[in-house]
Amino acid sequence: MNRDVRRRAAVAVTIAASMLLAGCASDSVPALERTATAADALPAGLVAGNGFDPETARHVASHRGVEIYLAKKLSEKFDVVCLILYQDTVPATWASSCGAGERIALTLDRANVAAEFIRHGVTSGDLRPGWTKLSDNVLVQD
Fold it and tell me: For this UniProt entry, which residues form the secretion signal (predicted)?
């Protein structure tokens, strides 16, 4: 191999690695970056004392009578996202789970709804049999 070919190969590898790392480094969650609308407001019972910042909540989907929200966690040093499932029943049923990792799984037992947040965005590789993509970052089990 001559020196010019090696140099071109090294440049190509460096560019490819940079592009991959740039894609992996992004923790941006589209729903949490958009401006809030009236539909994003959490039900009153979820606002106080649940660890997530209600001002950051964004409604991302509905599934079998369950409303699905994403929010940011209060006063965190890391990019912590919370997945929130809410069903308007009497009494209201809800669950939330927060994490800084790649995935958050959550089940609302009474409604028999399982959801999963995927930070990098749902890809075809994330879809498993019996699961459906509802938004850029959320899957639900059928």
Answer: 1-27
Residue 8: band (very low, low, confident or very high) from pLDDT cuts 50, 70, 90: very low
Indicate whether 128 belongs to any domain.
yes
Flag whether 11 is in a domain: no
Is the previous residue joined to 91 through a cis bond, with omega within 30 degrees of 0?
A: yes
pTM over 0.70: yes
